[in-house]
Amino acid sequence: MSASDDVLRVAVFGAAGFVGGELLRLLLQHPRVGDVCAVSRSQAGKAWSATHAFARNLDAAPVFVAPDDPAFERADVVFAALGHGESQRSVAALVADDPRLLVDLAADFRIRDPDRYVTAYGAHARPELTADFRYALADVVGADLEGEAKLAAPGCFATATLLGLHPFRGLAMRRPPVSFAVTGSSGSGATPRVGTHHPFRATNFHAYSLEQHRHEAEIGDQLGQWGAAFADCRLLTHSGPFVRGIHATLHFAPAEPVTDPQALLEKAYAGSAFVRVLPEPPELRAVTGTNFAHLHATQQHAGEIVVTVVIDNLVKGAAGQAVQAMNLALGWPETDGLQQLGLAAC
Ligand SMILES: NC(=O)c1ccc[n+]([C@@H]2O[C@H](COP(=O)([O-])OP(=O)(O)OC[C@H]3O[C@@H](n4cnc5c(N)ncnc54)[C@H](OP(=O)(O)O)[C@@H]3O)[C@@H](O)[C@H]2O)c1
Predict the structure, then answer these.
(1) pLDDT band at 2 (very low <50, low <70, confident <90, very high)
(2) Which runs of E-coded beta strand occur in 253-314?
(3) What percent of the chain has pLDDT over 90?
(4) Using CA atoms, how far apart are residues 344 and 285, in angstroms rounded to an integer?
(5) Under 8 Å CB-to-CB from 195, ≥6 apart: which residues?
(6) Of 23, 25, 82, best ligand 1 pocket probe by most atoms within 8 Å of the beta carbon
(7) How far apart (Å, rounded) are the C-alpha atoms in residues 131 and 111?
(8) C-alpha dihedral, 228 to 229 to 231 to 235, nearest 10°
């Protein structure tokens, strides 16, 4: 299929992974995407359906291609869903055909402050490129993404936490906010590990990376980019007994009392296509498989605020937000290809 101005040719690197698979699933249902090329080193030459169960429902039987395969040449949009550090090392291949848009879903180009990046992730192979990437928190940046050529899709914990903090970013805090966040096992990627092994995970719950989760650096960096009235947010990460989703409970104490925190959420997200402010604390099952984020805010004790946020880590926290950012960058309707409702019937 050939590219035209209106129907795009898209390449997905890291397409055999969880996020890559989710990108394929969403892009195949996108009205303006004509051709989707799935690039994988480990699965090149094999059918998508051997890795991604949804592909067994397709009429066609697409196969993964290797990174040096000419099949993905002339891609208009390139998504990179590679393992940590791989995008910065592969960037020459990702932009070889000068795509209109590159969307990176790893942490490689999210953090502007080089010292903060090095502290969290170690040395960066191409730090000079980070300034070219726009941090694409799509529900906050919105139409301002139009015309951008390189996007860094936010991390999943950072997305949930920043969506909860955004309405309050102008408020001085008595101490840094805390985000107590719980992720499902798909947050760890497709490679099996002890922490994602079903018997260990399915009936279990535990904290991890309490000394400092890497997304805390990303959140702090973004608060700095916003010019927020507070510099940091403590991130307390947990593994939950479910596959998809992030539930974040944010707790903070503004220096001045806030009479109606729910009204601040409603004001910040008025007219939002994907952020819903609920009258009660949200549930994961309502957003599973969707690009929606559900939020709620309430007061606890004198002047303390609790915000709860739920997202699907693979959709709003990764592939869905990346597609939303593509739509915004290319000047398309924000919701194109993303109007799936939830999966859970009960
Ligand atoms: N899972 C989530 O909830 C989530 C949310 C937001 C962002 N992310 C980010 O999205 C990226 C992909 O995550 P994922 O969960 O899809 O991971 P994954 O399931 O492990 O897939 C990553 C893919 O990247 C490719 N890859 C290339 N070089 C690699 C390397 N050195 N190490 C590991 N993989 C490498 C592999 O494909 P081939 O070897 O076949 O080419 C692999 O299939 C990561 O940077 C992750 O941090 C993940």
Answers:
(1) very low
(2) 275-277, 293-300, 304-311
(3) 86
(4) 6
(5) 185, 188, 201, 208, 239
(6) 82
(7) 9
(8) -80
Residue whose CA lies nearest to ligand 1 atom number 29: 83
Number of the ligand 1 atom closest to the C-alpha atom of 84: 45
Pocket test for ligand 1, best of 12, 13, 19 (most atoms within 8 A of CB): 19
pLDDT tens figures, 265-303? 999 999 999 999 999 999 999 999 999 999 999 998 888
CA angle 127, 329, 88 (to 5 degrees): 20
Catalytic site includes residue 233: no
pLDDT at 345: 62
For 37-83, what is each residue's pLDDT tens digit?
A: 999 999 999 999 999 999 999 999 999 999 988 877 789 999 999 99
| Ligand 1 and 43: CB distance under 6 A | yes
Which amino acid appears at position 221 of this protein? D
- Interval between CA 106 and ligand 1 midpoint (Å): 8
φ/ψ of 322, rounded to 5, equals -65, -40
Q: Is the CB of 81 under 6 A from ligand 1?
A: yes
Give the SS3 label for residue 275.
Answer: strand
pLDDT digit string, tens, across residues 236-247: 999 999 999 999
Residues 6+ apart with CB under 8 A from 15: 21, 23, 24, 38, 39, 40, 43, 48, 64, 81
Active-site residue, selected from the candidate residues 37, 156, 233, 346 = 156
